[in-house]
Design goal:
143 residues, alpha/beta, Ribosomal Protein L13p, Chain: A, 4-stranded parallel beta sheet, two-stranded antiparallel sheet, 29% helix
């Protein structure tokens, strides 16, 4: 038997839509990362980006378990002394609810050159409306 390796001509990208309302952040992020990497396809090859597009709606209604809403912080550092910032999930949800899901999915993707390319195929919207109806996305159903 021979091992089949995918080529760039084998790329067939589909569109998937995920409704984040009432879903747990970690559970939804793993499924999104799985689709962005293309691991659900039989031709999955680690060094070729075969992943699909994923649309996430109702990002502001994603659920965090436990006390994460108040005790979880996102950290960034400017490079200057004293330039570290800590922003809680609570404040992030008010200003940029899409970043909660984006940060979770980014952390679940492999840390390599394809990570940014995969994240460009992730479209996150705070509300229920999105401008991608022409692509005819398939609905993803999971727990």
């Amino acid at each position: 038997m021979k091992t089949i390796s995918a080529k760039h001509t084998d790329i067939d990208r589909k569109w998937h839509i995920v409704d984040a309302e009432g879903k747990t952040l970690g559970r939804i992020a793993t499924e999104i990362a799985y689709k962005l990497m293309g691991k659900h396809k039989p031709l999955y090859t680690p060094h070729i980006d075969l992943g699909d597009f994923v649309i996430v709606i109702n990002a502001e209604k994603v659920v965090l378990t436990g006390n994460k809403e108040t005790s979880k912080f996102y950290f960034s550092y400017s490079g200057y002394p004293g330039g570290d910032k800590f922003v809680s999930v609570e404040k992030t949800r008010e200003k940029h609810p899409d970043r909660i899901i984006s940060n979770a999915v980014s952390g679940m993707l492999p840390k390599n050159k394809m990570r940014d390319r995969r994240l460009t195929r992730l479209k996150i919207y705070a509300g229920a409306e999105h401008p991608h109806e022409a692509q005819k996305p398939e609905t993803l159903n999971f727990k």
